[in-house]
Amino acid sequence: MAASDEFTLYDLRVEVVAGDAPMVCNHRPGDYFELSGENLSFPPGQTFPLYPLAALLPLLPAKQRDTHPNDWMTTDMEVACPDPLCGARFRISRTGRSTFRHGEVTRVPLETE
Ligand SMILES: [Zn+2]
Fold this sequence. Notes:
By secondary structure, the chain is of the alpha+beta class. It has one domain (about 5-105). It has helices at about 50-55, 60-65, 70-75, 100-105; strands spanning about 5-15, 30-35, 40, 80, 90-100. It has a 5-stranded antiparallel sheet with strand order 3-2-1-5-4. About 10% of the residues are buried. Bound molecules: zinc ion.
């Protein structure tokens, strides 16, 4: 029997939450986007500013994966807007898990024994 090539990643939701200062960028509390595998999705008609998105993107692949319980990547849920004058925070939540197959996401073969 061939070994399964399945793996799982966390599904993520990134939501705008109010910080201590007023928001400068074009985001409002409750705005959000979701990530499943490599696919971002936004609610119909909702926009998301480019610069905060660019700052968030490097964190998301790590947050999709299992991390050590002591790792800050596991415990820290909120990151600040990269605009130092903007009060927005972005809460990254793991909302579930999706299963993917190695053979469907890459052409690099798995090493088999
Ligand atoms: Zn902002």
